[in-house]
Structure formats: C-alpha cells, structure tokens
Amino acid sequence: MAKVGKRYKKAAEAVDRNRLYAIDEAVKLVKGNASSKFDETIEIAMNLNVDPRHADQMVRGVCELPKGTGRTVRVAVFARGDKADEAKAAGADIVGAEDLMEAIQGGELNFDRCIATPDMMGIVGRLGKILGPRGMMPNPRVGTVTPDVAKAVESAKGGAVEFRVEKTGIIQAGVGKASFSEADIAENILMFANVIQKARPATTKGTYIKNVALSSTMGPGIKIDISSLFV
C-alpha cells in the first residue's frame, strides 16, 4: 500500500486541482500518470443536472465506443433454437434458457453482460433481484432485449458501454485502457460525451452537464473543460 500511496501522491502533484483541462491535455496527463503494473482503465465521471428519482429525468442507454473498451467482455444470452445458435455463432460465452436461469440462481454469475430474446423475459424476469442490483438485467432501452441477438452480442464484445445515471446524478464509465493511444482515448471520450448530451431529458432546465472528470484506476481525477468536449 505504501508504494501505491507514493505513486498516487506523485501523480496528484502533477495535477492542478483548480484548473479545467482541455480534453487532449487531460488524456495525456491521465495516461502518463497510469504507472501501475496492470493496464489501468481510463474512467470518465460526469455530474448531470438531473434528478433520477423522476422517471422523466432518468438518463440511461448504451454507447458504442469507436475504439472499443479494451476489456474482454463475457456475454450470457437467454435464447432457444435458432436464436441460441445465432448467439453462439456471434461469440456468446454462455447460452441457455431454464438451465441458465437455474445456474444464475445457484450463484453462477461468470459473465459481464446479459442479453435475452423477448420471448425469454418470462424466465429472465425471475432473476430481477439478482441481475438488477448488478446492472445486468436485460432491457430493451439499451438493446439487451432484442430478437437480433447476434448484433447485440457483437456490440457487447466490440465496445458497447451501458450507462445509467446514479441517484447522485453521476454517470461513470470506462472509456478505454492506459495502453490505448491518446488519440484513441480522446475519440472514445468525445463519442461518450456526445451520446450523453443527446440523452438529455426534455425536462432538464439550465446547465445539463455540470462537471466532468477523468482518471485512471489508480490515479487522481482531472477536471475537464466541458467546452473542449463539444467542438
């Protein structure tokens, strides 16, 4: 822990807490501060002027990152027959129906994303208390309840990031890895920011995106000049 503490302190000293950094500067700084032995995730946090307790101010959806996430995503699919075959052909890691439901009820959650065909929701609905709190409940709004399971699997594997605003108005997401080039990280961030901007609820008044910060897994947060995200 001492080594981590020293590394973090050194990284924090390179950051001006009172300054808003343009996106290119922020990416360079965050990438440079990611000096752990593992490939740190680059994370964005956006503070929105919304109250998610009201259904008409819930910000939720999916963003296709053009340069991918850098993560290996394990995908489980609820499907039968031809749709199950399509899911397997597209690269799904786990495919099933009642057997998959029973495995999850038994504590087997060795996947990151869950997809289902519409006819499977009667089964999947029984797993709400398990999948819901983990943010893995299939939902048509984010494309994880769909008859086109092949496309959904490919999207999940290829760089799709689900987002959902927290009770505090914060949206957080991984937008790449420290091993990515600065240009690729910046491209992912700009795409994510624009998707969030387009998801602005019609009932939101005044400033929508209040502040944005970028960090690596083990690094300090860096405040972003929001205007540099929308040029």
Features:
4-stranded antiparallel sheet; alpha/beta; 231 residues; 3-stranded parallel sheet
How would you characterize the overall build of this protein?
With 231 residues, the protein is an alpha/beta fold. Helix content is 33%, strand content 20%. The chain contains 8 helices and 9 strands. The strands form 3 sheets. Strands 7-1-8-9 form a 4-stranded antiparallel beta sheet, covered by helices on one side. Strands 4-3-5 form a 3-stranded parallel beta sheet, sandwiched between helices. Strands 2-6 form a two-stranded antiparallel sheet. Helix 2 crosses helix 8. The longest helix has 17 residues. It starts with a helix and ends in an 8-residue tail after the last strand. The mean pLDDT is 92.
Number of strands: 9
C-alpha termini separation: 41 Å
Summarize the biggest pleated sheet: 4 strands, antiparallel
Q: What is the 3D form? A: globular
Helix content: 25-40%
Give the low-pLDDT segments.
none
Mean pLDDT: 92
Provide a concise account of the structure shown:
This protein has 231 residues and is of the alpha/beta class. Helices cover 33% and strands 20% of the residues.
Secondary-structure blueprint:
Layout: H1 2-13, H2 23-33, E1 41-48, E2 60-64, E3 75-78, H3 81-90, E4 94-96, H4 98-105, E5 113-116, H5 121-124, H6 128-131, H7 149-158, E6 160-164, E7 170-177, H8 182-198, E8 209-216, E9 222-223
Parallel strand pairs: 3-4, 3-5
Antiparallel strand pairs: 1-7, 1-8, 2-6, 8-9
Helix pairs in contact: 2-8, 3-7
